[in-house]
């Protein structure tokens, strides 16, 4: 199985057999995660007009809120890319700086989302109110949970980087969290279009 | 009766704990088994669990058949009957068939492709323990709180809160969710293993057919299980958080669940049957002493089945008003699967044709499977004809059909695989005489049990009824069917007896190649050393081990398998207790949610999170076996490496 000799011509995260194996495995995991989201998207598409006695989508969406969330998340995807760039240059402080920026952006995304959820709930638009709201909170909330998980994960990595520097194992981990983070960004693009734009027309 | 069962469960548990303590086996159990990441041991644990669950599901089946033996029986109450058919179906599919296929995956795949382990051994252990504790959770429902009773598909609104208050449904949802996560991980693991860990020279077109079928099953797991995860998650939100996905009020739509469920449910049937096809391919080739006929068409048919079986889910609800266009599409797509399946059956027959066929137990089960599958396939096409399905839907015709394919395909296949690889797992073979008796009891019982059910279906008997009145004319066929079920029970007991008997008196396998096999696992001693291959083989042909034996017979230099390269230290993963602990935390979280004890649930999830974080901070995960030790082990197996006499 894993053997450790490094291949010089590959990026550091692919330089061990174990590293490339895990990265490939993570891609496959992303496929399953994407399918999970697809099911929630399908449910939302079926149910978003089923508002019962609750509000319609357009009545609760806050355009400025979700636009800001979108910009922040897209930017954070970019900054996490820069972090990988510095990692490949073997630049530890660059890596740490851009990871921290990514984490801060992620946290502000979560902050905005939570305040959006709270203000909905205050007006009585809760998950228990209607099928639309159940599917809305589940889909958006699942994405939010993923983002929070990513933040915790990157924080753990930050500690490890500060202790160990950039090794092939660390590099593999950073690269995988980067993949995960970009994936969440892609999901958000769909979420933005389907939930907020198409949903918002009703 | 339920109390009797509860008491006996408690007594058995106490007895096991006592024996372990008395013989001071706790440390051994923990070091050798509970913390292992060795795929061979994990495979054995899956096997034991699957057989135990087959027993539990089989007892359920016998209880039901006993209740139906005569009209107006008072053996079980309606509620008990509901609980029993629900747990029977759920256990058989998710906690018997799935671990059984995972057992053979683990036992055979790495050995067949010349690898030292699976791609992610630690994840493999997590998968097993998640399955194991999920199974415990579901079985616990019988003792604490009450079993699920809404059928193994748990359709809402029947399974939604207003109609089903008790904790039973929660048990169902959480147990399936936990084992489902483990199954997805196994799917990813073996997919990557087969694609990335093959020995040098083993191109995809030299891959043993069993591994091909595992690859097909893994692709299906990867694309289908997320739908189950989603369906269960939404149902759980409905039940414990007051959501409205599938309720009758506030805009919910139960059809959404039914669609999501079968997006997983239909492929699931092929997930459990494809590996059985793979086993049959290995067994037929080995015992006909011939290369499999039409390898390429076999590979093609596996892949075609993989794709089409993902696209036919709606044939499970033809009668629910989707309209003629949709029904026609799904009817035609369903029938098309018969073509690649037919191709496979003929390929097995052609392989046997003019071969030197031997019929020990694995081959016996394979031969027994072929007529089963012909009948099951034919009745399947009958069901796939949408207009006709309005007649058969939810009748005993359906029950007969799916048991014919699930038992005749999956169970026969897994039992064949068990007999086939048993020597590789344990170093001794199972007793042939007992195996033959077991087979005939089971096989004849099988026809006696399920053939009458086709007729019962035609006579209008619907599934899931706990009793019927004498005037219906169903009594005779039901009596015959129940007798068949008991015969199968005897067959099962004989298999169990064989396992116990052979553990003491079974013929030892000293060569490692007891069947005169064809694929790489037979090039190793039985049981294989924990690093599998001292030197990774170089493969130059399909059926690599067979070819190398042929070359040796012809007195040629053996090129197919070279053990010439020098020994190197072997890199192996370390055992870890964390997969076990992690799964216990999942169990705790699940148990908390079953009873809406959120504090316990949160504690469980915190434990899960902590385990993940600890793993992230762990870097010392593997070690090297020094050359001396490898040499020593190989010598002890009587295998001296080239040039080291
Ligand atoms: C060993 C012999 C078996 C016997 C005698 C048996 C018998 C039965 C009976 C009597 C029912 C209930 C029919 C009804 O009232 O609706 C049933 C249902 C079912 N069985 Fe089996 N069974 C056996 C093995 C299996 C196996 C191996 C599997 C799967 C791999 C399986 C899967 C199911 C499923 C999915 C249901 C439907 C449960 C439901 O309606 O929710 N059975 N079986
Ligand atoms: Cu189906």
TrEMBL record, chain A:
Q: Which CDD domains match?
A: Ubiquinol_oxidase_III
This protein's UniProt keywords: Cell membrane, Membrane, Oxidoreductase, Transmembrane, Transmembrane helix
Cellular compartment(s): Cell membrane
Matching InterPro entries: Cyt_c/ubiquinol_Oxase_su3 (IPR024791), Cyt_c_oxidase-like_su3 (IPR000298), Cyt_c_oxidase_su3-like_sf (IPR035973), Cyt_c_oxidase_su3_a-hlx (IPR013833), Ubiquinol_oxase_su3_dom (IPR033946)
* Membrane-spanning residues: 21-48, 68-87, 94-112, 132-159, 179-199
Task: Pinpoint the Heme-copper oxidase subunit III family profile domain residues.
Answer: 24-200
Topology in the lipid bilayer is annotated as: Multi-pass membrane protein
User: Does the entry feature the keyword Transcription regulation, yes or no?
Assistant: no
Family, according to the entry, reads as follows:
Belongs to the cytochrome c oxidase subunit 3 family.
| Name of this protein | Cytochrome (Ubi)quinol oxidase subunit III
Q: Which organism is it from?
A: Alicyclobacillus fastidiosus
UniProtKB/TrEMBL annotation, chain B:
Q: Where is the Cytochrome oxidase subunit I profile domain?
A: 22-540
- SUPFAM superfamilies the UniProt entry points to: Cytochrome c oxidase subunit I-like
Localized where? Cell membrane
Taxonomic superkingdom? Bacteria
Q: Which Pfam families match?
A: COX1
- The main place the protein resides is membrane
Q: Which UniProt keywords apply?
A: Cell membrane, Copper, Electron transport, Heme, Iron, Membrane, Metal-binding, Respiratory chain, Transmembrane, Transmembrane helix, Transport
Keyword Thylakoid found: no
Q: What topology in the membrane does the UniProt record assign?
A: Multi-pass membrane protein
Record's keyword annotation contains Electron transport: yes
Where are the bilayer-spanning segments? 6-23, 44-64, 84-109, 121-144, 171-195, 207-237, 257-280, 292-313, 328-351, 363-386, 398-422, 434-455, 475-501, 580-600
Family indicated by similarity? Belongs to the heme-copper respiratory oxidase family.
Q: What's the protein name? A: Cbb3-type cytochrome c oxidase subunit I
């Amino acid at each position: 199985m894993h053997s450790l000799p490094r291949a010089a011509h590959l990026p550091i995260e692919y330089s061990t057999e174990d590293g490339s194996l895990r990265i490939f495995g993570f891609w496959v995991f992303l496929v399953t995660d994407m399918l999970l989201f697809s099911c929630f998207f399908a449910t939302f598409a079926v149910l978003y007009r089923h508002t019962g006695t609750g509000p319609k989508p357009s009545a609760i969406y806050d355009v400025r809120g979700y636009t800001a969330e979108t910009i922040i998340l897209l930017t954070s995807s970019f900054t996490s890319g820069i972090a990988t760039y510095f990692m490949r240059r073997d630049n530890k402080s660059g890596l740490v700086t851009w990871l921290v920026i990514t984490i801060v952006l992620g946290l502000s995304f979560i902050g905005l989302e939570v305040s959006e959820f709270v203000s909905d709930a205050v007006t009585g638009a809760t998950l228990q109110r209607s099928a639309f709201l159940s599917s809305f909170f589940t889909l958006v909330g699942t994405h939010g949970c993923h983002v929070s998980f990513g933040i915790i994960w990157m924080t753990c990595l930050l500690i490890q980087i500060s202790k160990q520097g950039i090794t092939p194992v660390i590099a593999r981990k950073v690269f995988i969290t980067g993949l995960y983070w970009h994936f969440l960004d892609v999901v958000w693009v769909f979420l933005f279009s389907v939930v907020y734009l198409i949903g918002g027309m009703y | 009766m339920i109390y009797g069962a509860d008491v006996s469960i408690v007594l058995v548990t106490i007895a096991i704990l006592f024996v372990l303590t008395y013989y001071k086996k706790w440390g051994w159990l923990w070091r050798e088994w509970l913390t292992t990441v060795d795929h061979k041991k994990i495979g054995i644990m899956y096997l034991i669990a699957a057989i135990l669950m087959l027993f539990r599901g089989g007892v359920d089946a016998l209880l039901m058949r006993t209740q139906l033996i005569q009209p107006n029986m008072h053996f079980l109450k309606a509620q008990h009957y509901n609980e029993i058919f629900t747990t029977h179906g759920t256990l058989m599919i998710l906690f018997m068939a799935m671990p059984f296929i995972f057992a053979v995956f683990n036992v055979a795949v790495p050995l067949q492709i010349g690898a030292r382990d699976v791609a992610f051994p630690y994840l493999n252990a997590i998968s097993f323990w998640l399955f194991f504790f999920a199974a415990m959770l579901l079985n616990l429902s019988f003792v604490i709180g009450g079993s699920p009773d809404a059928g193994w598909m748990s359709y809402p609104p029947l399974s939604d809160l207003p109609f089903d208050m008790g904790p039973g449904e929660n048990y169902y949802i959480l147990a399936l969710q936990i084992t489902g996560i483990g199954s997805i991980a196994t799917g990813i693991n073996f997919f990557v293993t087969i694609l990335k860990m093959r020995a040098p020279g083993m191109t995809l077109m030299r891959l043993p057919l069993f591994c091909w079928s595992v690859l097909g099953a893994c692709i299906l797991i990867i694309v289908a299980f997320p739908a189950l995860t989603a369906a269960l998650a939404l149902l759980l939100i409905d039940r414990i958080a007051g959501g409205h996905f599938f309720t009758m009020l506030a805009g919910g739509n139960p059809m959404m669940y039914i669609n999501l469920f079968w997006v997983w449910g239909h492929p699931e049937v092929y997930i459990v049957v494809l590996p059985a096809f793979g086993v049959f391919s290995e067994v037929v080739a080995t015992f006909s002493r011939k290369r499999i006929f039409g390898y390429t068409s076999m590979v093609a048919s596996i892949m075609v089945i993989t794709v089409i079986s993902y696209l036919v889910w709606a044939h499970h609800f033809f009668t629910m008003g989707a309209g003629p266009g949709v029904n026609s599409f799904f009817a035609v797509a369903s029938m098309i699967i018969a073509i690649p399946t037919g191709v496979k059956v003929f390929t097995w027959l052609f392989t046997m044709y003019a071969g030197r066929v031997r019929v020990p137990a694995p081959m016996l089960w394979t031969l027994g499977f072929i007529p089963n599958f012909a009948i099951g396939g034919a009745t399947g096409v009958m069901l796939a004809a949408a207009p006709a399905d309005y007649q058969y839907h939810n009748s005993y015709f359906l029950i007969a059909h799916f048991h014919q394919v699930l038992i005749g395909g999956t169970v026969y296949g897994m039992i064949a695989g068990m007999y086939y690889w048993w020597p590789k797992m344990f170093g001794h073979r199972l007793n042939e005489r007992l195996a033959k008796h077991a087979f005939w009891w089971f096989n004849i019982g099988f026809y006696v049990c399920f053939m009458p059910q086709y007729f019962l279906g035609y006579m209008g008997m619907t599934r899931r009824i706990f009793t019927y009145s004498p005037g219906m004319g169903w009594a005779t066929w039901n009596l015959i069917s129940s007798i068949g079920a008991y015969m199968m029970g005897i067959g099962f007991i004989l298999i169990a007896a064989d396992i116990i008997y052979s553990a003491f008196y079974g013929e030892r396998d000293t060569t490692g190649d007891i069947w005169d096999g064809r694929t790489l696992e037979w090039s190793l001693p039985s049981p294989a050393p924990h690093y599998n291959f001292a030197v990774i083989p170089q493969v130059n042909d399909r059926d690599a081990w067979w070819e190398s034996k042929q070359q040796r017979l012809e007195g040629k230099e053996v090129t197919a398998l070279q053990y010439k390269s020098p020994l190197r230290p072997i890199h192996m993963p370390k055992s870890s207790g964390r997969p076990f602990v992690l799964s216990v935390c999942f169990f705790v979280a699940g148990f908390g949610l079953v009873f809406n004890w959120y504090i316990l649930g949160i504690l469980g999830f915190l434990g899960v999170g902590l385990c993940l974080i600890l793993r992230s901070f762990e870097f010392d995960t593997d070690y090297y076996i020094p050359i001396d030790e490898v040499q020593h082990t190989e010598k002890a197996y009587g295998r001296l490496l080239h040039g080291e006499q």
